[in-house]
């Protein structure tokens, strides 16, 4: 380990981290991210101070490094702090990071119809008792935005047991649980036997429910197969074919609205393809049934915007993008509603088809997964 070097009159420190990369860290960043007892609560890691408690004149006046830690003294106050070098390596920010608009996080894998041969599926009885099996299943949801679960009880409300594995139900105007079967006067086309184009649910909410679970209780009707489409892969294909169209759908907001229930009027204004400021692809909202007039696109761009909208719709409908399956009683699937679109083929009046659905949020799932991964690391 090379000795730490103080740079720019104490405004930064340079050192070689595990792996051999030389990285620079600003003094203000190091002080803000200190883990000593006066800066962080040792039980939960939350900061005990605000940025206003850190002088803007903070400088490093001494810095040494051994094989495991960086030791720093700050001025004013001669405040001494040490940092784990592996932690610094994980949180290094030095260096040029080129980002192409539409990049996806490394833990995500986009897919098309070829995913059919390797669907992520688990057994309810197994994930209910095995942390390793549950972690693998949740990891697949993070990776693909979609997974199935089999062998669940065939009883009303069983889907709540699925959500209990990782988080909490998000209740909406449709209730804690909503029934997906034919109704005489439905307040949503999902409650008919009609086929439905692949879509994300509730785009008229802000924020949208980020997870949806659909659980099968009966399915003897002809037709009614479920389909899923990776909205991220569709966005990637659109960008490859039509970069300007991708830019328009990510730069301008679409509008969505739902007023199908008494006393409910939900509206949102968001792009169909949502990017973070650094270009990361983080969301897709696509639901033709709930789209309201698009008025945020300038006149000169509207033709090209609609051409891109049409092409995205064609990609969503393309057979080589779709994974289809027919749920059996006791089976369910879960989708990342900010990414994966789901659809249904129409079904006949003979036989019966009864699914129950509910919403949950991805933060609970990712929290549970992170805890399981940390436990796994500690036991290795």
TrEMBL record:
Swiss-Prot/TrEMBL keywords: Dioxygenase, Iron, Metal-binding, Oxidoreductase
EC class: oxidoreductase
Pfam families documented for this protein: TauD
Gene3D superfamilies (UniProt xref): 3.30.2020.30, Clavaminate synthase-like
InterPro entries assigned: AlphaKG_dependent_hydroxylases, GBBH-like, GBBH-like_N_sf, TauD-like_sf, TauD/TfdA-like
E.C. no: 1.14.11.1
Superkingdom classification of source: Bacteria
GO molecular function terms listed in the Swiss-Prot or TrEMBL record: gamma-butyrobetaine dioxygenase activity
PANTHER family tied to this protein: GAMMA-BUTYROBETAINE HYDROXYLASE-RELATED (PTHR10696), OXIDOREDUCTASE AIM17-RELATED (PTHR10696:SF25)
Stored NCBIfam families: carnitine_bodg
Family note: Belongs to the gamma-BBH/TMLD family.
Name this polypeptide is given: Gamma-butyrobetaine dioxygenase
Organism: Paraburkholderia nemoris
């Amino acid at each position: 380990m090379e000795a730490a070097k103080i740079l720019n009159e104490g405004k930064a420190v340079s050192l070689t981290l595990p792996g051999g990369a030389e990285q620079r860290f600003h003094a203000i960043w190091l002080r803000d991210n200190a883990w000593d007892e006066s800066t962080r609560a040792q039980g939960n890691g939350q900061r005990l101070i605000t940025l206003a408690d850190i002088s803007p004149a903070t400088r490093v006046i001494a810095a040494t490094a051994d094989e495991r830690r960086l030791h720093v003294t700050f001025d004013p106050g001669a405040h001494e702090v040490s940092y784990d070098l592996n932690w610094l390596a994980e949180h290094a920010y030095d260096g040029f990071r080129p980002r192409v608009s539409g990049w996806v996080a490394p833990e995500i894998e986009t897919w098309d119809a070829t995913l059919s041969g390797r669907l992520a599926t688990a057994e309810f009885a197994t994930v209910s008792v095995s942390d390793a099996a549950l972690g693998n299943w949740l990891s697949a949801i993070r990776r693909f935005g979609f997974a199935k679960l089999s062998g669940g009880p065939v009883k009303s409300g069983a889907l709540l047991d699925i959500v209990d594995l990782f988080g909490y139900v998000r209740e909406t105007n449709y209730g804690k649980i909503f029934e997906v079967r034919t109704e005489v006067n439905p307040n949503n086309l999902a409650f008919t036997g009609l086929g439905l184009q692949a879509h994300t649910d509730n785009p008229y909410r802000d924020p949208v429910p980020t997870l949806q679970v659909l659980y099968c209780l009966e399915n003897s009707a002809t037709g009614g197969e479920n389909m899923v489409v990776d909205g991220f892969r569709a966005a990637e294909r659109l960008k490859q074919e039509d970069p300007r169209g991708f830019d328009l759908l990510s730069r301008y907001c679409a509008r969505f609205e739902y007023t199908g229930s008494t006393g409910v009027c939900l509206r949102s204004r968001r792009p169909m393809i949502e990017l973070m400021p650094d270009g990361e692809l983080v969301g897709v909202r696509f639901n033709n049934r709930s789209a309201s007039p698009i008025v945020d696109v300038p006149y000169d761009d509207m033709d090209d915007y609609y051409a891109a909208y049409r092409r995205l719709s064609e990609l969503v409908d393309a057979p080589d993008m779709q994974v289809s399956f027919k749920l059996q009683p006791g089976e369910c699937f879960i989708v990342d509603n900010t990414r994966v679109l789901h659809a249904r083929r129409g079904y006949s009046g003979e036989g019966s088809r009864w699914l129950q659905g509910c919403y949950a949020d991805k933060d609970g799932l990712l929290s549970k997964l992170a805890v399981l991964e940390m436990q796994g690391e500690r036991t290795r």
